[in-house]
Amino acid sequence: MAGSSHLPPGQQLGTGDIEVDVDIFDGDSAYAESTHQDDTQTLASEATKFKWEHGRRYHAYGNGEYWGPNDEKQLDAEDMVHQMFLTILRGRLFQAPIPEDPHRVLDVGCGTGIWTIDFADQYPSAEVIGVDLSPVQPQTIPPNCRFEIDDINKDWTWGENTFDFIHVRMLTGSIRDWDAFYQKCLKALRPGGWIEQVELSSHTKSDDGTITPDLPFKEWADVFLKLGEMTGQTFQICEEAKGWIEKAGFENVTENVIKLPIGPWAKDERLKEWGVWSRVYLSEALEGFALRGLTNHLGWSYEKTQIFLTQMRHSLRDPKLHGWVPLSVVDAQKPMA
């Protein structure tokens, strides 16, 4: 089973060279415009003392140093990327072969809670727990769903052999010790339980050579490589997750690396739709990804940061650039013994 794919039939799209749709480039402007419980109360009180930097709101729980904002703009982007992943996975919330009647499920770094809520709705047999640093989840939720505010880098309070499934998505740059993180996941899963991790790379590539080192995409990747080295929280987990998970002792480890186009330049209609989603998402999320890291850690001015982000958005909308980013989906199972 190791190395096999859990994707549904026909879901091997995004693995070979992507053919460019040459018929859509009637004009650059048309292309650019095509998309546009007691202790909990104490924790919640601390967690809602938000910080503001350069007009963006950040969480305050713990050391308050997580790179991403938690304001409405960022939350909208998180919900948008959820819809993008649903589109890519043909409406599925996950691809791991979990049982049809899971009992306890953990969504690590749940953000807005949209995946947690959707899973709870689809699987009423399960108690679904979403955990995050910020209390930004909705008040109205399914009865089998709950949210906890905690720092997953600290010791976990869930017992050994607790969960049937652990879902991890977009935690790049968020974990101080990935080896320890996966050991916690392994311990918290029941024997035979599954973990799934979904991550986007910061590296933009192309099949036809249109993504060159002189473009801002190269500096974007270099910036996050440097930020990971400075903070000790790598942004390269898309490329590294499979190896860490295997090292932790999981078995039946599989990885699907999908080429996610940026923009609707691909000829295949499904890839074109993926590209629309990714370009809109990246355009909206660029500032949230980079602002705090560039200004606080790399010492960039706010003005320099905004100029760089403008250059990035311009490149995202350039029809001559046929870029794609790797999207990694890793599934693994806790041994039965």
From TrEMBL:
GO biological process, one term: methylation
Designated name of the protein: S-adenosyl-L-methionine-dependent methyltransferase
Assigned protein family: Belongs to the methyltransferase superfamily. LaeA methyltransferase family.
InterPro entries tied to this protein: SAM-dependent_MTases_sf (IPR029063)
GO molecular function: methyltransferase activity
PANTHER family: 2-METHOXY-6-POLYPRENYL-1,4-BENZOQUINOL METHYLASE, MITOCHONDRIAL, METHYLTRANSFERASE
Provenance organism: Zalerion maritima
Organism ancestry: Eukaryota, Fungi, Dikarya, Ascomycota, Pezizomycotina
Keywords: Methyltransferase, Transferase
Source taxon at top rank: Eukaryota
